[in-house]
């Protein structure tokens, strides 16, 4: 048995809660109050890691205030706004506990569900994710687009990404270690959580409306998030472009043959300007679309090939994910 494994087995059960926060000063106190009450009831050694994702309001001061009154609070302060996915990763890098819960600060994910997540973890599941049974206070368009997106992802990707599931979940230590080893710049977290495998379990819950403050997502961001999900987890669009190209080329070839034969048999009255124009613009459009799809993948390869660190902390170096092997 490896030394690390031995220590892991001897350690008492400890739990880290990772909370990415970006401009959440209105909800933070309420959130922490509810979270602390839940953590008190667990009987585990706990730690709450707030990742300040370059907030521009009083969030940082609010976290400092919480830390004064609660020794469990740890602050990870990023050098600018990196986005929720990277903030989450930074939190996971800094979590050393036997299990880690990832939760939003806006109280849309109820902290009261944590004991249930923990219970399933103790039963032996590595990833216990909270599955929304309903989304209160969100527009019909958002619900419909989210519904379609999850079904499309299901069809496109070989990894089964659970539908109607956000980032709210519990990860065992080996699951956290696995996620932290994936250092890609474009992080579709739900996909990564699913990709690592291990025994996974869903816990249904009712998603509440935001407690206060405003969502940081608009439809343009959501569209890009969907693109991120698709391009990070499947190359199918590239294949579709190839087959559409092939079909239209075959069609054009057949049409050309038909024109030649018709000219030979019937002579050439030379009409057909409109149809020619339609064909040329249609094919031009298809070509641009295909180039665009290739470009999406190429841009991601470009970003990955730079091999930059995922984030910087305001003070000090980003923590190396391999140090996660150290005990709590
Ligand atoms: N968040 C973050 N960085 C960002 C945007 C959001 O850390 O750039 C945090 C935010 O503070 C919250 C969580 O991610 O704790 C979810 O954000 P939000 O509620 O805006 O997303 P939604 O629930 O609408 O999907
Ligand atoms: Mg929210």
UniProtKB/TrEMBL annotation:
SUPFAM superfamilies to which the protein is assigned, alphabetical: Nucleotide-diphospho-sugar transferases (SSF53448)
Pfam families membership: Glycos_transf_2 (PF00535)
Gene3D superfamilies (alphabetical): Spore Coat Polysaccharide Biosynthesis Protein SpsA, Chain A
First-listed, main subcellular location of the protein, grouped into a coarse class: membrane
InterPro entries associated with the record: Glyco_trans_2-like (IPR001173), Glycosyltransferase_2 (IPR050256), Nucleotide-diphossugar_trans (IPR029044)
Record domain Glycosyltransferase 2-like: where: 16-178
Subcellular localization, as worded in the UniProt entry: Membrane
Membrane topology: Multi-pass membrane protein
Residue ranges crossing the lipid bilayer per the database entry: 240-261, 273-299
Key words, A-Z: Glycosyltransferase, Membrane, Transferase, Transmembrane, Transmembrane helix
Keyword Transmembrane tagged: yes
Source superkingdom: Bacteria
Name this polypeptide is given: Glycosyltransferase family 2 protein
Lineage: Bacteria, Pseudomonadati, Pseudomonadota, Betaproteobacteria, Burkholderiales
């Amino acid at each position: 048995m490896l030394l690390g494994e031995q220590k892991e087995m001897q350690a008492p059960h400890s739990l880290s809660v990772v909370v990415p926060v970006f401009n959440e000063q209105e909800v933070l106190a309420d959130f922490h109050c509810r979270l602390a009450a839940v953590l008190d009831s667990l009987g585990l050694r706990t730690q709450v890691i707030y990742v300040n994702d370059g907030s521009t309001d009083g969030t940082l001061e609010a976290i400092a205030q919480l830390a004064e009154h609660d020794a469990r609070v740890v602050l990870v302060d990023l050098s600018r706004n990196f986005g929720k996915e990277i903030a989450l990763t930074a939190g996971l890098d800094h979590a050393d506990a036997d299990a880690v819960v990832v939760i939003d600060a806006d109280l849309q994910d109820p902290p009261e569900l944590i004991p249930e997540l923990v219970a399933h973890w103790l039963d032996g599941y590595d990833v216990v994710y909270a599955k929304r049974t309903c989304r209160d206070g969100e527009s019909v368009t958002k619900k419909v687009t989210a519904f379609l997106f999850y079904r499309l992802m299901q069809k496109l990707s070989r990894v089964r990404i659970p539908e109607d599931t956000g980032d709210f979940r519990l990860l065992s230590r080996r699951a956290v270690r696995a996620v932290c080893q994936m250092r890609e710049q474009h992080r579709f977290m739900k996909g990564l959580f699913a990709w690592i495998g291990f025994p996974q379990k869903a816990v249904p819950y009712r998603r509440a409306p935001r407690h206060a403050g405003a969502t940081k997502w608009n439809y343009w961001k959501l569209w890009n998030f969907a693109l991120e999900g698709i391009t990070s987890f499947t190359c199918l669009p590239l294949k579709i472009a190839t087959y559409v190209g092939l079909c239209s080329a075959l069609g054009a070839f057949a049409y050309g043959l038909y024109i030649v034969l018709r000219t030979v048999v019937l002579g050439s009255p030379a009409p057909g300007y409109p149809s020619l124009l339609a064909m040329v613009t249609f094919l031009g459009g298809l070509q641009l679309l295909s180039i665009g799809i290739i470009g999406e993948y190429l841009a991601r390869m470009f970003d990955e090939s730079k091999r930059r660190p995922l984030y910087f902390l305001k003070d000090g170096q980003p923590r190396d994910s391999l140090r996660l092997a150290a005990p709590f």
